[in-house]
Amino acid sequence: MRSYSIFRWLVPICLFLGVTLNSCSEKSDPIPNLVLEKQTVQLKPGETVSIKIQSGGNTYKAISSNPELLKASITNDEVVLEAGEIDGDAEAKVYISDANYNRVEIEVTISSYEQLVVNKSNLTISQILFKDTLTVSHGEAPYKVTINEPSLVDLTHAGNKIYLTARAQGSGIIQITDAKSKIVDVALKVEAPRKSMNFSDRYFGHANFGDIAVVDQSVKKLTQATFEMTCNLQGYRGLQTFMGLEGNLIIRGKNDDYRETHPIEIAGLGDKIMLETASSFKLNTWMNLALVFDGTKTELNQKYRLFIDGLEQTLIVRRSEASHQTIDLTSSNDGGRFEIGRANGQEWRALRGMVSEARIWTVARTAEQLKNESCSLSEDKPVGLLAKWDFSIGTDSNLIPDSNKGKYKTDLIISNTKAEGSYLAVNAPISIFSAFNCPF
């Protein structure tokens, strides 16, 4: 009787457990997420918009954080938003929930102002000195226009037009802001196939650092400096000008073509200091030429150093009646101008060759820097770079833009070598600019 009693109790327990286990083994339907077509909305006063509910648990509710500003309701699985009448900008949120207690938010901006609209979101300029225009079609004037890389382009704007002239290769972001602080960004890219200019004894370039000296006197008393250029000479001529300050500090060729040797000469202080390379420079060969001055040194071979393709050259001292303690970039016999390709207003001192790039530094560059960066500068913000003239322009021009990333810009003006003593700007035709492939 006792065993029968135990069995009588076990049967219902087993039946209960069987039902329970069987129920657990059945898979229940997953609870759907609450998903809306979009969760950010911009409206004008009085405007109505519907947002589709793409999935959820039905029995939807919509609650506005500010019902007087923004009405919210549900109609046929859509959230209906209606903006109130306002003058200015306002923001509100709408909270959407379903039967499964899911919840999402819609962020709503209501503005009585025009939305800022620019005709391009991306802009590519294919050559240095090429021009382009952006147009603001909607927004609240006046507009403010800035760029995170000012060295890339010259920017001007008038009314709803933004005018750009490319100055250097690279990428940046143009930001347009209207009077109501609405902002639009335009991605900018400037492409600049590498080129060189054939000076061919017809053209020379000159720059005036005196404009900088008006606000920054340091350029008149540099304890260090580097004159650097990448060039290809096609003929010898005595005193032909590479670059520099005539009567102050200049790099030039020494001998005419009938002479046996053709060293590069460094002359300064009215020829009271004169040094020359122990070997001749080669014709029809690209070279990166750099004169490094360091006035903190006392020995002449440390104060004046010349590098070709990053290799220091042996210098022979021909005259040393005086030497520089500092360099004044505003002082020369050419009206204070720094020149490339001519000196003293004399046509016969013209450069016979091509130039692809020239740089002026207010520091003494190292041999390693000169060698590693002869083709292009890898430094984002090169210390001491005062001017950088890249001859990779894409149109007829009377100047080579300064594309250094510093706070001063000193363009290189192109003039006619044959017009002796003249510094008037002349247009150099695009035909004298040719493709350049850096050999270093």
From TrEMBL:
One of its GO terms (molecular function) is hydrolase activity, hydrolyzing O-glycosyl compounds. It comes from the Bacteria. GO terms for biological process: carbohydrate metabolic process. This is Concanavalin A-like lectin/glucanases superfamily protein. Transmembrane segments: none annotated. SUPFAM superfamilies: Concanavalin A-like lectins/glucanases. It holds the Pfam family Laminin_G_3. The lineage of its organism: Bacteria, Pseudomonadati, Bacteroidota, Sphingobacteriia, Sphingobacteriales. InterPro entries: ConA-like_dom_sf. Signal peptide: none annotated.
